[in-house]
Design a protein that fits this description.
Number of strands: 16
Distance between the termini: 81 Å
CATH architecture of the largest domain: Sandwich
Helix content: 10-25%
Number of domains: 2
Structural class: mainly beta
Length: 226
């Protein structure tokens, strides 16, 4: 009985020592930051809805590191120094790319991630008519890929995070209204009583590609109401 007690104490001691050694490992201190871009310009997405994957070279048992992309196309990950493979995942508002990007993290490191969207939004503009309470948007849409356009939506939000999941009001133009992409597209949302009484709201445009879950978005614009 005494022998079993001594053995149990010894095992507990070993576990505690191992735990202390584990806890004494330094956490990762380097930051990998960057922006998802097309032709050098940031690509707007749904906040937290689109991600990249990192895999570290040189390890027999590797696991992915998910890196979520902010709505303005930027991302950040805290990592150990080393060599990584960065993967652009499918399901995003850009064309699938099978090749990966090799990234060497040595201290704080910055890398831009180029993608090719199916559509891009250019020249977004928002105006507010205080008499009617209407916010009117105009923009140009350019087709880059081979898939068809499904819709263009004007989103109105009450915070600076605006997308299909974070919106107070919206209005959608379907594909039938978007057959001719050579001309600017106009979209209108008339604010409800609650939103019209606010000092400001936020506006953003999102274009959806047929068969693709995530939209590509314009930058968020703050609209002063009063």
């Amino acid at each position: 009985m005494k022998s079993k007690l001594i053995s149990s104490i010894f095992i507990l001691f070993v576990i505690l020592i191992a735990g202390c050694e584990y806890d004494n490992y330094d956490p990762p201190k380097s930051f990998l930051t960057g922006t998802v871009t097309y032709n050098g310009n940031p690509v707007g997405v749904r906040s937290g809805g689109t991600q990249l994957e990192l895999w570290q070279y040189g390890y027999a048992l590797r696991s992915k590191i998910s890196v979520y992309i902010a709505q303005d196309g930027t991302f950040s990950a805290r990592l150990f120094d080393g060599n990584y493979k960065l993967v652009r995942l499918t399901g995003a508002p850009w064309q699938s790319q099978t090749d990966s990007i090799s990234v060497t993290v040595n201290g704080n490191t910055t890398v831009d991630v180029p993608v090719t969207p199916y559509f891009i939004i250019t020249n977004p503009n928002f105006t507010y008519n205080s008499s009617t309470g209407a916010i009117t948007s105009t923009c140009n849409i350019t087709k880059v890929g081979t898939l068809n356009i499904e819709s263009l939506t004007l989103y109105i939000g009450i915070t600076s995070i605006v997308d299909a999941n974070n919106t107070s009001q919206s209005n959608t133009l379907s594909s039938g209204s978007l057959t001719d992409l050579t001309t600017p597209k106009t979209n209108v949302v008339t604010l409800n009583t609650t939103n019209k009484s606010r000092k400001y709201v936020y506006a953003r445009l999102g274009v959806k590609t047929s068969g693709v879950g995530e939209r590509l978005y314009s930058p968020v614009q703050k609209i002063i109401l009063q």
